[in-house]
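Last lecture ended with a question: if I hand you only a sequence, what can you say about the shape of the protein? Today we answer it with a concrete record. The protein is Pyridoxamine 5'-phosphate oxidase. Below, first the input exactly as provided, then the predicted structure, then a couple of comments.
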Amino acid sequence: MDFVDCIEFANENPVAWLATADGKQPRVRGMGMWYADETGFYFQTATMKDLVRQITDNGKVEFAFYRPDDAVGTMLRVTGEVEFLDDVEVKKRVLADRPFLAEFGLTAEGPELVVFRITNGEAHFWDWESNLKPKEIIEFGD
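The predicted structure:
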């Protein structure tokens, strides 16, 4: 497995469980990833969410994508550090791809729409066959 496999798996299973820290308290929530490519995993959120404060205070995150099957399924776990993208053109693309965000009053020019990506980190796949084996770490980014 390599990073291309991670990109494909994430795009085919875009609902991720994203873990952050809130002080000493771990927090996890389901999120719909925007997309993944060779430059990283892209997400968007809004400033009214606790998530923004959490990843501003501590940008280290972990997220997991899951694909069910007849047994226990396959999971892709990714760790890395958040990079914020404060780019109006990127925000316009998010709004074009996800028009429901405008219903919340989010605009490309406003500060409320937050786009972030994870460009550097480690990933590994888990399934029943690999359950007791050492993790095969896939490093990505710089």
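Comments.
1. Residues 3-129 form a domain with the Pnp Oxidase; Chain A fold (CATH 2.30.110.10).
2. The longest strand covers residues 113-126.
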